[in-house]
Amino acid sequence: MEPPTSSRLNSRKRRKDGSGPNGATELDGIPPKMSRRSFGLREPAPFSDEVEIDYSKPYIRVTYEEAMRGTPLDRPVRVYADGIFDLFHSGHARALMQAKNLFPNTYLIVGVCSDELTHNFKGFTVMNENERYDAVQHCRYVDEVVRNAPWTLTPEFLAEHRIDFVAHDDIPYSSAGSDDVYKHIKEAGMFAPTQRTEGISTSDIITRIVRDYDVYARRNLQRGYTAKELNVSFINEKKYHLQERVDKVKKRVKDVEEKSKEFVQKVEEKSIDLIQKWEEKSREFIGNFLEMFGPEGALKHMLKEGKGRMLQAISPKQSPSSSPTHDRSPSPSFRWPFSTKTPPSSPANRARNESTVTYDISEDEED
């Protein structure tokens, strides 16, 4: 039996003049599409002891070629996949999805080992067997769940559940004193390989939990779990509480720093706006000052205009040149009574008196 590969599953001949889907014809050997029977789409998959099997019909395995061509709707290809499925994750779901899509009409049976077998042959599990059964039941690709599945598949077990193919990754699985527990299945031509999902496994998840144990222990202590339930000593419990308080203080300090940074940033933005506004206002003030008090400012023009008006107001008006001139009559002289001499006076009065005396003598001569 040739193992199914992705290229073989997806290989289809295309013809431009074909009448089938994607240009395929009946000669291409592509089975028609058919609906798949599945209990896991709307409700949990049933357990194998809850499903009735008609043992009146003989158990005749289908070949790989028959399975690939497609079987009747009432005779799906029965594919079996087993495992521990502890901490059920996406890697488990992807493996079951591949097993479900091996053939066009597939009925997927999943076997889950019990706690007793798992603890004896592999190790302690995080989830108990009932939790692991329930997790597999609610996977959408599963049609039936076998509880307490055997560690090594026997011909009697395969015949009881009428299994056609066993799906598992192709890596040899050494356990129970054997280099590969699926060796006899491969030799019988009943093995259908699937691909493992890299980057995730139950061991990886447990490793993360162990690595970050302190973080999870502190978190669960905060949620109300006791130190006894978490298997934490008294000293570690006090240490975790102290670390929790320190972390809270650090968080508060960090929040204060972030808020202070935001406040400083806002103040800087405000100061920049104020400086810009102050510069604009200062330029406007300086311009207005120069416009008023500058060399050619409005104040200088106002002073000039006021000075001109003041000079015009205090200066006498000149008489017109065409007006007639009048001879000034000589003013009468004043003489001291009983004396022909003038009284002593200041030099200015003396000069004035001299002119007066001269005038008086001329008048006497005329007389």
TrEMBL record:
Q: Pathway listed for it?
A: Lipid metabolism; Phospholipid metabolism; phosphatidylcholine biosynthesis; phosphatidylcholine from phosphocholine: step 1/2
Please give the Pfam families that the UniProt record associates with this protein.
CTP_transf_like
User: Could you tell me which InterPro entries the record lists for this protein?
Assistant: CCT, Cyt_trans-like, Pcy1-like, Rossmann-like_a/b/a_fold
Q: Which reaction does it catalyse?
A: phosphocholine + CTP + H(+) = CDP-choline + diphosphate
Q: List the biased-composition ranges (Low complexity).
A: 330-339
Stretches assigned to the Cytidyltransferase-like domain:
80-208
Q: Which GO terms describe its cellular component?
A: endoplasmic reticulum
Spans annotated as Disordered: 1-41, 313-367
Molecular function as annotated in GO:
choline-phosphate cytidylyltransferase activity; phosphatidylcholine binding
SUPFAM superfamilies (UniProt xref): Nucleotidylyl transferase (SSF52374)
Q: For this protein, what is the EC number? A: 2.7.7.15
Q: Where is the composition biased (Polar residues)?
A: 315-324
Q: Which UniProt keywords apply?
A: Coiled coil, Lipid biosynthesis, Lipid metabolism, Nucleotidyltransferase, Phospholipid biosynthesis, Phospholipid metabolism, Transferase
Coiled coil stretches, renumbered? 239-266
Source superkingdom: Eukaryota
Q: Which family does it belong to?
A: Belongs to the cytidylyltransferase family.
Q: What does this protein do?
A: Catalyzes the key rate-limiting step in the CDP-choline pathway for phosphatidylcholine biosynthesis.
Q: What is this protein's name?
A: choline-phosphate cytidylyltransferase
The organism of origin for this protein: Casuarius casuarius (Southern cassowary)
